[in-house]
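FAQ: What does the model actually see?

It sees only this:
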Amino acid sequence: MQVLKKIAVYFLVLGLIGCGNRLTDNRIEIANQKYDIIDYDAISDEMYKIDALNVSVLLPLSGKAENIGKGMQNAMFMALSDQRDNNVILKFYDTKSTALGAKDAAENAIKEGSELILGPLMFEEVESVAPVALKYDIPIVSFTTSPQVLQKGIYSIGLLNGEQIERVLSYAKSKGKTNLALVVPDNNSGLNVLKSALGSAQNKGIKLVKVGFYNQSSIDFTSLIKSMSEEKDFDAVLIADGGNRLKSLASMFAYNDIMYPEVLFMGTSAWDNTNLSKETILYHGVYPMVSKNYVSYFNGKYKETFGEMPKSIYSLAYDGVLLAATLSMKNTDITESLTSKSGFIGVNGYFKVLPTGQSWHSLEVYEITSNGPKVVAQGEKNAEYVENEFDVRYISYDALPKVYGKNNSEVLKWLYNN
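And it is asked to produce this:
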């Protein structure tokens, strides 16, 4: 009965979408009604004769990440509105923002005939769902940006740190910058950035000279940046953060006479969420980002429909539905189609799902100017980034960076075990 209820919700929503050119609040409210109000007898038997792809969506629709989960759900309904000629049935399952909730959701989805899972969102959710999906050979297309859990069968279309660093270091090398200093938060995300930077730098003939770790609860980076700047043996700095921390870190580098053009400042997509048009210290700094040619459409329609600007991750949820719709029209094996070399086009531009589980997006490089960010390098079309091929044990001890703000042996231990 639960399957029938969920399919009923889908068709009720889809029928309403077909009545107009845009979603309304009423349509979303109907989609979120409790399933037990649906009248099964009113559902035509023709609904169940469609040879559709059964896609289960695992999102945090309650708990600590509820707001993000519901925003992603809204984006998926919007994608259904835009892609009417598809062969997809979406069934939503609440992960409750927990690993256990995600595992229960995946088990229920598989019992109810799931052929493909979109989600979950968070690393711990994906980690708990992976064994269940692998056991039944159901591919997962998640939104995690943590590479450790990714493998054949457990994929992500999230914007991974590794591919961002790969892109921006390619740009740095093209500008003759070959000695890198890295500044990252003192957490697993920062360690993942360090690992990606090590591998990417090695492949490109760039030397990662030093890495500084900082406490995210602080905005006083005086001591850290002073120590890193005493020996000016780098010509590029990568700051893997945004907002006020980014501004404070850049200011401290300038205070220690680390500035453009001698040093190129670089970042990740987190820079795109920070207004830097008045940050003169960061003028000419660069960061990678998906193409904005199409995502502006998504942002505009989402705001018009739901009354607020979407978070960037909502567009990935939209692309997840487009991907599923594309897969539903193919007659080949789902995994084979999913990891096809031809890739996909979404509102975030051209992207691929790699056999290793990682995503690859055609990232543009943006430069900070007084008039806002401008494109200085177009997106590439070849998926060469594969983080799993890198092993820190192949780097000699002498070639490892000097560590600031964290115990060196602790960093090495993490690198050797991850």
